[in-house]
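pasting input
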Amino acid sequence: MQSNLSTDFSCPIIGYIKSPFADKFAVPRQSGLAPSAISQICFYKPYSDPKAFIALEGFSHLHLIFFFDKIEKEETFRAMVRPPRLGGNQHVGVFASRSPFRPSRIGLSVVELVEIKKHDGEISLFVSGADLVDGTPILDIKPYIPFVDAKPYAKGGFATEKPPLKQVIFKEGVRLKLKSLNTRELKAIEEILAQDPRPAYKAGTEDVKLYRAQLYNFEIVFSFHGDTVLVEDVLQLKA
Amino acid sequence: MQSNLSTDFSCPIIGYIKSPFADKFAVPRQSGLAPSAISQICFYKPYSDPKAFIALEGFSHLHLIFFFDKIEKEETFRAMVRPPRLGGNQHVGVFASRSPFRPSRIGLSVVELVEIKKHDGEISLFVSGADLVDGTPILDIKPYIPFVDAKPYAKGGFATEKPPLKQVIFKEGVRLKLKSLNTRELKAIEEILAQDPRPAYKAGTEDVKLYRAQLYNFEIVFSFHGDTVLVEDVLQLKA
């Protein structure tokens, strides 16, 4: 039997995420890599109804299904992508990747559920380890069911283990400029920079460039020195 | 920052699944519960391009993102559902469930990748353990990355372990009527019936009803006797 649907699929956008990542640059390349980064999922009405979240507190993890809205809709299908993990110069099939440059522009991330908050009769969720740009539209939230979803012995192709981490150090006096952040937010910034957010082809090379990432309400200015990331300066963004 | 999208999300349907489940009734309630059930994912052009699947062979498992197209689009949002696992009479929030009756009508399943087949220059995928009705439209295929997606110690709320299995026996002579099926297909039928596909509220009660499930090209007629499923008859469906 062949599906009789030849048209597009459509569904409502149920909410959006508030994350520390104001910009695509420096978003962790998978979920869970910066566990101290807490994001808030806000729901539009009527999806914010507390009844829709009854029994969710029994689950420790969630699947977020979201819309990579920062990616332009392609006019022609691109069959291959260059994952950053492979140095950004090797092609693999788009369906062998988690690249946002895919026909559906649907993203999938597993996050940890930290808190279910009720405010003015509406629910929002606080989650840890999300890899979504601030404002990303949410299409669905599903509970993570370990006996169904956890395949710890699965073969992970070209993505078999976590990428190596850099050490993060701050230039003298610079950390003080972040004193409005709490300990967890500071730790999140370190986790994010430790991932080495540069384009992958830069990683093995001599690199004298200054990079800038927008995290929380700060612009973080940093450079690379072997296995170390040096935070050179921090600028407060307007609220 | 709030998403500036108030409209619906849309994306192309990239293919469809050929599964043993001609009908909603008797589809396993989660993926992986009937591992012998092999399904084929067929792609529309241009998504069937073999280039789009380069390096997929290194992954043992996939996420299928699909459209529950047998579910009517609801005019009003239903905040609560009654999962079969809870006996079908207890309500939980829709976002605490994997119910198809959800705003997005998007489904998510983890399946095992069995074979990547190339035929006439087009790719199709054979997968094991899918819980999709035959003909279900596919929106996306993503590789399963164990270090990101596998959370074996996650808390599973009201769905902490696999449902108990029934024993499946055939009335004398009935198994012979399935001789056109191979061993794996026969085993799949047993795995499917062992799940007890009845509406959950029936499970604990005296139940003299005859049930019918369409699997492969057969109608399977069965009844329940304590912890046993008795296959009473098998009828060949027209091809």
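fyi Confidence is low (pLDDT under 50) at residues 1-5 of chain A.
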